[in-house]
Design a protein that fits this description.
By secondary structure, this protein is mostly beta strands. It folds into two domains: 132 residues, no CATH class; 190 residues, Porin. It is built from four helices and 25 strands. The protein is elongated.
């Protein structure tokens, strides 16, 4: 287990440094000089405070901080500008939400991500769970679009002054009060409003938000082969220790995957049910049974597994990629038990197999719609409902997946 975990970690660290590519772009320094360069594009979730770039393919990697450059861009799809703005960092965590309706502004110099650029420009700032939007009209200073959650007598309220700001500043027949009532403080809605205003004003503008976003959800059908072992023992009766034989059984399931919209689509969240069945028999001689008869133990274990976890992709080319998984599995036992009987067939005892949880790690390869994965699970204690019984259920799986569709 330790060796496999080390392998996963090594692949992840290696890929983290090797997969992000340098792309053609530019920087503008503090003197207003624009330089063509190639920039390491990590598809930032949080707005960056520094970038790595090279002036040519053979140049050494250079680092520019927010103090060094006024602006940088990559291709025609990504642009950040430096600005000193009023930033409201009010928390939206229910444990820390303010009772004050007004935002608490702090002057801060940050890189703003350009979403729409034109007569009316829209910018975005992200740091962790904090998201704030800013706007500029013509050559006016950049201003925050005001939105804040707050509490009054334990009731959650919203300060949506940004709607009034838009109505006051973006006068246009396409932007009405009724339309503004329906929008939320989210990128999709705000981009539509700013694009509508620029079109209405017959002004040149650029929308930096991709029109054709990749599908974010994938649904897979999965079939796998489990190699499973079970051992049980009783802390009171030493003779009640059974090591069942390894069994090879099929499992089937579905998986839904959500691709996170940052870091070049390399991270995913996965969730899906699997059905698995383990059945085995063990005969053991004992002196505690009259006539020195053997004990026959039969295990019949059906369960529905619900794995949830994260997936990290390592792209090889446009059609294939490696991936690693880290999963938390909740297992629900279905009419499962272990029975004990004498060799003459007389009944001795029965214990129920309970529902429990464990972890799993997977390493796989994806080619177009097909995926193949080797998955290793940590031991599962399926006799958790009993004080004196212990168990180790161990599984290694080979899984094949086929993508049914994306949406």
């Amino acid at each position: 287990m330790k060796k496999i975990f080390t392998l996963f970690l090594s692949l992840f660290l290696l890929n983290s440094y090797s997969q992000i590519e340098f792309e053609k772009g530019y920087i503008i320094n503090n003197s207003g000089e624009k330089k063509a360069c190639i920039i390491k594009n990590i598809d930032w979730h949080n707005n960056p405070t520094k970038i790595n770039y090279k002036l040519s393919e053979n140049d050494n990697i250079r680092t520019a901080t927010i103090k060094d450059i006024e602006e940088f861009g990559i291709g025609n799809h990504l642009k950040f500008i430096r600005a000193t703005v009023d930033l409201d960092k009010s928390s939206e965590n229910l444990n820390y939400i303010s009772e004050n309706r007004k935002p608490t502004f702090e002057k801060e110099t940050i890189f703003l991500k350009t979403l729409v650029e034109g007569k009316a420009s829209l910018y975005k700032y992200t740091k962790g769970l904090l998201q704030r939007y800013f706007f500029k009209l013509d050559n006016q200073p950049i201003k925050p679009l005001v939105y804040k959650l707050y509490l009054i007598e334990d009731q959650l309220r919203k300060n949506e002054y940004f709607k009034q700001q838009i109505y006051n500043n973006l006068r246009c027949s396409a932007i009405t009060k009724e339309k503004l009532k329906k929008i939320d403080y989210i990128q999709k809605d705000l981009v539509k409003i700013f694009v509508a205003f620029n079109r209405c004003s017959n002004s040149q503008y650029k929308n930096f938000v991709p029109k054709n976003k990749k599908d974010r959800f994938n649904l897979y059908a999965k079939i796998g082969l489990n190699s499973s072992l079970l051992s049980i023992d009783n802390s009171i009766a030493n003779e009640n220790k059974f090591d069942f034989d390894r069994q090879y059984v099929f499992k089937i399931g579905l998986e839904i995957e959500y691709i996170l919209p940052f870091n070049k689509n390399k991270w995913g969240i996965i969730l899906g049910p699997n059905y698995q069945h383990y059945k085995s028999k063990k005969i053991k001689k004992t002196i505690s049974i009259s006539g020195n008869q053997s004990i026959i133990s039969n295990v019949n274990y059906h369960s529905l597994e619900i794995p949830v976890g994260i997936r990290y992709y390592m792209f090889l080319n446009n059609h294939s990629k490696l991936f690693i998984n880290a999963l938390y599995i909740k297992d629900f036992s279905i009419n499962s038990s272990i029975t004990f009987s004498r060799k003459d067939g007389s009944y001795l005892n029965e214990i129920e197999i309970g529902s429990w949880k464990n972890l799993a790690f997977g390493l796989g390869y994806n080619y177009n719609k097909f995926s193949f994965e080797l998955r290793l699970e940590t031991p599962r204690n399926i006799l958790i409902n009993y004080i004196y019984w212990n168990s180790d259920y161990k599984t290694i799986s080979v899984i094949m997946s086929y993508k049914l569709f994306d949406f």
